[in-house]
Structures are given as C-alpha cells and as structure tokens.
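Retro notes
What went well: the complex prediction finally ran end to end.
Inputs used:
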Amino acid sequence: MMQSLLHMILWSLVALIFTIVFFSRGTIENWGDNINKTIMVAALFIFGFGGDFILRLIFKNKKNKIIKDERDDYISMKSMAISGISTFIYIFIVAISLYTKYENSGYVPVAWVWFIAYSLVMVANITGSLSSSVYYWKSEME
Amino acid sequence: MNEEKIKNNIRLIRRGKADITQDELAHLVGCTRQTIVALEKERYNPSLALALKIALVLGVSVDELFILEQVNED
C-alpha cells in the first residue's frame, strides 16, 4: 500500500508540474520554438520513472522478509485493468474536447499532441496507483 | 440470482487446532501477514498453491478449510 501511495504522490507531482509548465503563457502557441520547456518535460519524466525505479528497489522482497506476494500481484493486475480503461476514457474526452475547441479554426496546435502523449503516461500511472491504494485500503479497513 | 462465495475457517483452525499467530502462518506459507488478514476476513481468495500450503501448515484438508457457499441475491 505504501508503495502505491508513494507512486501516486510521485506521479501527481509530475502531473502538477507538467500542467503548470504546459499551461503557462505562450507554451501552446510556441511549443516548437521553446526547447527549454521540452527539456523540462523530459526531465520530469526522468524524475517520474527514476523515482519509480527507486521505489521498486526499496520494496523488493528481502532474503528472509516477504514484502510482496500473490495478493499484491492480483491487486496490481486489477489496477492495471482500471488504469487501461481510465486511459481510454481520458483520451476520448481530451480528443472530443480538442475537436470541439478547434472545430472552426480547422487545425489543432501541435503542442496538444505532445500534451496527449505526456499526460497519457501520467494518467495511466496515477489511476493505476490510486486504484491499487483503494484496493489495499478496502481490504485492510474492514 | 445465485452467486458463489468462498468462505473459510482459517482463523478458527489457526487459533484452535494449529495455535499459531498470523505472522507465523504467513512466514510458514511464504506470504505477507496482510494477505492472511485479508484471507481471514474473506476479502481475498487465495491461489490453489497458497490454499494447499495453508492446509498443509494447519494440518487439515483443503475441504475443511474452504467452503463454497451459494448466496441468493433475490
């Protein structure tokens, strides 16, 4: 449960910083010209996946201590399914929203394609860890 | 509509016949104590391998440990 919670906090932080960077003034219009922001977003991903890797190392089964077992694998599978469905719904909503917004102008700024690509990973990670945290919480509460 | 639910006597046998703690049982079968807690609360159904290990450690048959119940939802 702790690993899921930390994972959720880590990716929520990544998503928050990404949202602030992406929606700051002029980013969407000048996406291609602003290399610093592209590097910043890439660094955010390194931070997210790097943190993920460190968490895996910390919560690895030790020689005489079992930290993870078949129930954790079961919860992980369930949360992956929820994460997949949530991601589909998210993509659908974002795509429809962009279509509605840019329907009259006839083109969508390329920054939004990057936004979908980056945010997709974040949404998948956050919903996955959120659902597994809820599963753990539910099984330990009753 | 009928639904099937797996009930178990793990807590009863662990505390009675076997007289071991959740920690000890977890250690002996190779899982976490949280999994034993979830099993005893019937919040999780174990794999066949884990069910067999628990039965072996507690010294009972799988039949004595797990009961398949029909739940009527009407």
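What we learned: Chain B has one domain: 2-72.
What to try next: split runs per interface for comparison.
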